[in-house]
Amino acid sequence: MTTASAARSNGIEYLPAEQKRLLVLDLFKEFGITDFRKNGFELTHRCTLGFGGHSDGNSWTASINYDKLAFNCFVCGHGGSLAWWIAVNRGETTPEQVSNWLAKKTGLAGNTVDLPTLMAVVEAIANPESETERMPYYDDRLLKRWHEWPGHHPYLSDPRASGGRGIPTGNLDRYEVGYADLDDDFKYFQRIIIPVRWKGSIVGWQARALNPDDPEYDIKYKNSPMFPRDRILYGDVEGRAARVVVESPMSVLRHCHQSPMVATFGAKITETQLRLLSRYDRLVFFLDPDKAGYSATTKAIWKLKRHPDVRVVENPWTADAGDLNDADFDKLVNTAVPAALWTPKRYRELQSYEG
């Protein structure tokens, strides 16, 4: 048993969540943090670290998880235990200084508990063990910086004949899609911003590259910090009605006006995502027509073999769902075959799409 584990079984009860919260609020007062928001165990505030990386000092980019006693800032990229955050803000150099302060502040010093338990608890505070990852949440106002562009980027809204994706502007408005021409905080250069909501709250976003002059153009999609892609779906997630399952949010944006859809953020579909998919009355898988898409579809329909209505689109083209026009998308979805009858096509059998 590690020292931190021992602390949880031999003394961590001395630190209830409310006491931890009050402890952090005291620290906020000390460090001049007067504005903050609470979301679950997260207290979001302006970053007080002096490491640079912030072009906008008013952004609420930092948070303290008072249950885990951990700090993170998703702009300057620094994070660590509460003890580390205290030390940086105070300019203290030795962990003993912070540990002594924590012991006095939490009431664990003196005769309340024996010395080994005290040291174990203090160590647990200063070096919290990793725990099950919680869902990240962001303030809605964060999106404002990416909605200053007039209208939608032509790459999204222009017809395919003109080099765009042909996405209806109503779909782009519905999913709050934005654009970052130049964002110094996140190091974005001419990227489409696709916000992701889960149960009504913003839990992250994807920034899609557009310009080859982007220093990170080879990273097609840059995800927000702690992006929970393996635990959520993108698109119409509420209710039980049939859903078309695609890989990419772009496919959802292109066709969500035609059918309720969800995207899995790639061909890798996790067990959590499969459980989320299993709640819909009918599933129509329309993953990309390539090796990864076929493999993911095969595994998914096997895992969902007890589901009463799983179907698969028989796509004759090399194009994915987001490349198709409305009529061809509708035709393929409406003629999807039961999963038991589906056989993956050989890639060389697929035709170029000219719709």
Description:
The protein has 355 residues and is α+β, with helices and mostly antiparallel strands. It folds into 3 domains: 3-126, Zinc finger, CHC2-typedomain (DNA Primase, Chain A); 139-227, Alpha-Beta Complex (DNA primase DNAg catalytic core, N-terminal domain), CATH 3.90.980; 229-355, Dna Topoisomerase Vi A Subunit, Chain: A, domain 2. It has 11 helices and 15 strands. It has helices at residues 3-10, 17-30, 82-90, 95-105, 115-126, 154-157, 169-174, 249-255, 271-277, 291-303, 326-334, and strands at residues 37-39, 42-45, 62-65, 70-73, 79-81, 178-183, 188-198, 201-209, 221-223, 234-235, 243-246, 261-263, 283-285, 310-312, 337-338. The strands form 3 sheets. It has a 6-stranded mixed β-sheet with strand order 10-12-11-13-14-15, covered by helices on one side. Strands 1-2-3-4-5 form a 5-stranded antiparallel β-sheet. A hairpin with a 4-residue loop joins strand 6 (178-183) and strand 7. Helix 1 (3-10) crosses helix 5 (115-126), helix 3 (82-90) packs across helix 4 (95-105) and helix 4 (95-105) packs across helix 5. It is elongated. The chain starts with a helix and ends in a 17-residue tail after the last strand.
